[in-house]
């Protein structure tokens, strides 16, 4: 047996170590370890719950808005404080924009280089690349001279010997299968996506004042639409910009992201049989009907539920207040629980008490039967759950959403793959692309609704009802959910005498990247790695492909900073 260690995994947010034990080159078991501690949950205790969103949002700089949303919803849920339809629409638009921005960035900047060999692009013929682009979509950057120019820029990089952000790739690895022209085309779009995302961010700045970390408010959205309070983001110019930004997002998704995903997937169909994972999927759901509000979870655009053992014929209901459903274990985590290490806790009663028990860095290997991660192990009714784009697309598909069915079935038939191919590394990537298409289109609908509300004279964006702590119950608790790009996210808040008595966030990357539980059940990353054949242990590209397909964010997952924490920068093989 040998062990492949990837530490840190790069092109993610935060600090992740993967250890994979291999027998004859095949992974027999793996450990996923979050190696840095941060402390946001504990920072929130004792504060005014109306301020929690601003602090909670600092959990992450990637999914910058989702913790703000989960936080204001938790407080609104606890204090039964409804918000007006326009606020719901603005939140839907902001969450939608986060998805589209985040997924495109993940595909091109964090994941593409696992599949696209940048150095091979130097062998591409610009004319053939131009023909390929014209065949894939009507995207405007398609001329021979455009691709000749991109190739020139790339050879400047390589020729200078300074690959910069492209250094340390496993270029030339035999698992790279794309022809040079597709490599060049994808590289061109890598650069274009950097520019595109700058404009996409403006939607958050318009509604929330800034990006990253737009502003929120408990009880609504913090922007005026009536113009009474002076300047408003949504004056005629602002409205035109929102429409323009959404059109720009949709064009890039339709003409670049979707066709690129399909074109690349054709060469990697064997990845539809790798990286299956735990086979259980969970969504909290997202995008409330603006007229019914977030508490009416029967009307969410992405439904709430659980799929067990890949059985799409049965959706199990999820209740965030039921203390027997969502629970976190710390049996293999560097935390203490006051009631016993193997006794899982529901987040209302959750505890965040760091307890590092070693090994002392630098260490060679983790002991998988002991504590080995700063992540907890969340479980739903005791079972590990995969969350994220695949879970959401499966939930839409299983609940009969016509557009999703058409998109998924169309994609499978174009790639000549069976439905079972969805449960894989490739399925996860395709699901992310398809949900981006669904949501970018949906954003136009929410935008139209918002503009017609305004036209009809409803410009309310927040609840003006009396909302001061002396009107609150002495004690209250609430759960605020959202779907973050990486999956189901919720915050649980307990309020006593107007202050936060307990605050717990259970985060998508914790669901996916968490360690084993008291029963020894693996988390989704760990399960997904089992069975991978590693072609070259010095270049563990296969591990990166499957781990990146989940889009890890360890800043989110641990959300606790150890000033003395060291991280090891190495890839080792023992
Ligand atoms: Ni930091 Fe996050 C998303 C959240 S991942 S990126 O999406 O919540 O766990
Ligand atoms: Mg937590």
TrEMBL record:
Keyword Oxidoreductase: yes
Main location: membrane
Cited PROSITE patterns: NI_HGENASE_L_1, NI_HGENASE_L_2
Cellular location(s): Cell membrane
Cofactor(s) required, per the database record: Ni(2+); Fe cation
Name under which the protein is recorded: Uptake hydrogenase large subunit
Origin species: Thiorhodococcus mannitoliphagus
UniProt-listed Enzyme Commission number(s): 1.12.99.6
């Amino acid at each position: 047996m040998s062990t492949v260690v990837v530490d840190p995994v790069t092109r993610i947010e935060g600090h992740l170590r993967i250890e994979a034990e291999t027998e004859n080159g095949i992974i027999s078991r793996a450990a996923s370890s979050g190696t840095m501690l941060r402390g946001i949950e504990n920072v929130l205790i004792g504060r005014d719950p109306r301020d929690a969103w601003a602090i909670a949002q600092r959990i992450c700089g990637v999914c910058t808005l989702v913790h703000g949303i989960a936080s204001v919803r938790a407080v609104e849920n606890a204090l039964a404080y409804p918000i007006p339809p326009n606020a719901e629409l603005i939140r839907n638009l902001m969450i939608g924009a986060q998805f589209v921005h985040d997924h495109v960035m993940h595909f091109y900047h964090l994941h593409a280089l696992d599949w696209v060999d940048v150095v091979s692009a130097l062998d591409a013929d610009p004319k053939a690349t131009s023909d390929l682009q014209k065949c894939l979509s009507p995207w405007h950057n398609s001329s021979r001279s455009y691709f000749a120019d991109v190739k020139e820029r790339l050879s400047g990089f390589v020729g200078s010997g300074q690959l910069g952000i492209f250094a340390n790739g496993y270029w030339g690895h035999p698992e790279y299968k794309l022809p040079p022209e597709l490599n060049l085309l994808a590289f061109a779009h890598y650069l274009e996506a950097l520019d595109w995302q700058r404009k996409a961010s403006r939607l958050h700045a318009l509604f929330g004042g800034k990006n990253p970390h737009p502003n929120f408010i408990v009880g609504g959205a913090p922007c005026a639409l009536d113009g009474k309070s002076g300047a408003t983001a949504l004056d005629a110019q602002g409205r035109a910009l929102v429409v323009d930004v959404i059109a720009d997002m949709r064009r890039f998704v339709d003409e670049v992201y979707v066709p690129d995903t399909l074109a690349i997937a054709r060469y990697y169909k064997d990845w539809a049989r790798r990286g299956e994972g735990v086979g259980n999927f969970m969504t909290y759901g997202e995008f409330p009907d603006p007229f019914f509000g977030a508490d009416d979870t029967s009307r969410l655009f992405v439904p709430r539920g659980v799929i067990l053992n890949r059985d799409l014929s049965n959706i199990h209901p999820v209740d965030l207040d039921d203390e027997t459903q969502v629970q976190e274990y710390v049996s293999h985590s560097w935390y203490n629980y006051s009631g016993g290490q193997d006794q899982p806790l529901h987040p209302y009663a959750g505890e965040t008490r760091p307890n590092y028990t070693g090994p002392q860095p630098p260490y060679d290997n983790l002991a998988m039967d002991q504590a080995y991660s700063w992540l907890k192990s969340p479980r739903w009714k005791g079972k590990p759950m995969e969350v994220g784009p695949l879970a959401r697309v499966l939930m839409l598909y299983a609940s009969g959403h016509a557009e999703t069915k058409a998109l998924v079935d169309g994609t499978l038939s174009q790639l000549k793959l069976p439905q079972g191919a969805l449960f894989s590394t490739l399925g996860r990537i395709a699901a992310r692309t398809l949900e981006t298409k669904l949501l970018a289109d949906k954003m136009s609908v929410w935008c139209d609704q918002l503009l017609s509300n305004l036209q009809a004279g409803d410009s309310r964006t927040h609840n003006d009802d009396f909302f001061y702590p002396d009107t609150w119950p002495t004690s209250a608790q609430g759960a605020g959910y959202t779907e973050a790009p990486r999956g189901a996210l919720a915050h649980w808040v307990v309020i006593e005498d107007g202050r936060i008595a307990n605050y717990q966030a259970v985060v998508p990357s914790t669901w996916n990247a968490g360690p084993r539980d008291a029963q020894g059940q693996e988390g989704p990353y760990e399960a997904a790695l089992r069975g991978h054949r590693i072609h070259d242990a010095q270049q563990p590209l296969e591990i990166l492909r499957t781990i990146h397909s989940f889009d890890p964010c360890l800043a989110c997952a641990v959300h606790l900073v150890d000033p003395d924490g060291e991280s090891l920068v190495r890839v080792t093989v023992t």
